[in-house]
Amino acid sequence: PTMASDAMATPTGPSVLERATQILREIQSGDSKPARVALKSLSIFTGIFLIIAGIFGTTELFKSLVYFVGSLYAIIFGLVVLVIELYKLTDSLPALIKTLSAPIKRVYDLIDIYLKFLTLQRGKGLFYLGVGILVFFMGPTDEGTYSGWGVNNVAALVLAVVGSLHVLRVAKEDAAHLGERCARQGTHPGQ
Q1: What is the DSSP code string of 144-157?
Q2: Do 141 and 61 meet the contact criterion of CB atoms below 8 Å apart?
Q3: Distance in angstroms (rounded) separating the CA atoms of residues 187 and 173
Q4: How far apart are CA 154 and CA 135, in angstroms?
Q5: What pLDDT digit, counting tens, does each position of 102-150 carry?
Q6: How far is it, in rounded angstroms, from Cα 75 to Cα 68?
Q7: Phi-psi category of 140—alpha, beta or left, where left has phi over 0 and alpha has psi -120 to 50?
Q8: Cα distance between residue 47 and residue 51, in whole Å
């Protein structure tokens, strides 16, 4: 650099654009940590969004019973999504949320016993896709006529998209927690 302004224009490492491009390439490969983190973050966001949308949707109790029931589904399934996605993170949660660690583990143990397919990536993806489609078609009505989209419909659409990403295994999840209960009991998953 010949001038002081030129010195500022020459970065010592890769530029932000180059780093962002590299991360996007890693996410596209599907078998990288950034891809897994992106999918996990998107899934957690979707669970939270579904709960919030469900809470807002319950205000439609006297206008549309079907939308109200869909909102209750959204809240319950949003909680299930959060339990499934937060289970692996319970040991690294901040102190404020650490109190939720024990209930999350207890509920996940029940899911692991009775809804084993939710512990597998494609199984949980099909569940997310199914719940998203179910809640999506429960639209708000105004005096018996369909009146467009509600917040639940948007959240359900996002959940269906995230479910599709899981089913297609766009980003392959770490399978270390699969069969965890069997390992603790000393049995084989096929028994």
Answers
A1: TEE----HHHHHHH
A2: no
A3: 23
A4: 10
A5: 888 899 999 999 999 999 999 999 999 999 998 888 877 666 556 677 8
A6: 11
A7: beta
A8: 6
Q: Judge whether 146 and 60 are in contact, CB under 8 Å.
A: no
Handedness of CA 124, 44, 91, 28 (dihedral sign): positive
Show the tokens assigned to 62.
Answer: 């006297």
Inter-residue contact 170 to 31 (CB < 8 Å): no
Rounded Cα distance between 55 and 44, Å, is: 17
Mean pLDDT by 10 residues, the chain (191 residues): 52 73 70 82 93 90 82 93 88 70 90 92 94 84 66 90 91 62 49 39
For residues 141 and 76, give the distance between their C-alpha atoms in angstroms, rounded to a whole number.
22
* 173 neighbors 36 (Cβ within 8 angstroms): yes
Q: What integer best gives the mean pLDDT of the chain? A: 79
Q: Which 3 state secondary structure label does DSSP give 25?
A: helix
How is residue 19 written in tokens?
Answer: 């780093």
Diameter of the chain by CA atoms?
74
CA 165 to chain centre: 10
